[in-house]
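Hypothesis: this fold can be encoded by more than one sequence.
Test: take the structure tokens below, design a sequence, compare later.
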């Protein structure tokens, strides 16, 4: 991802439809992440800022690698839902994952109080 030095605050989302709705219907702070409950799927906001297109880096949190990058601003709820299903199946069936980019998983310890992105 581009912003691998950001610290993220991660909300656990209960299912794929909820995740798709959150991403399609809102703009998020640049330090916001989402983890899909009971799966290795982790999304971290990789946007340059709240005014730009909402870009998310997709991680397999178990293996600690970035597997995709998606621009959710250009995706409908339906497309996001289909993407998550397809992506989870692909990741589950892969013996090894080719990571995208470098830097690995950024910090998921946002810390107390607002940072420069959510102040
Ligand atoms: Zn923040």
């Amino acid at each position: 991802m581009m912003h691998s030095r950001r610290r993220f605050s991660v909300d656990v989302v209960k299912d794929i439809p909820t995740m798709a709705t959150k991403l399609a219907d809102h703009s998020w702070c640049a330090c916001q992440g989402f983890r899909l409950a009971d799966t290795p799927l982790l999304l971290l906001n990789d946007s340059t800022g709240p005014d730009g297109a909402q870009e998310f880096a997709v991680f397999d949190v178990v293996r600690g690698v970035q597997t995709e990058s998606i621009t959710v601003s250009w995706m409908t709820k339906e497309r996001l839902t289909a993407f998550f299903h397809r992506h989870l199946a692909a990741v589950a069936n892969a013996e090894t994952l080719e990571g995208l980019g470098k830097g690995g998983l950024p910090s998921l310890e946002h810390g107390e109080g607002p940072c420069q992105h959510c102040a």
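Residues 9-93 form one domain. The chain has one domain: 9-93.
Hypothesis status: open.
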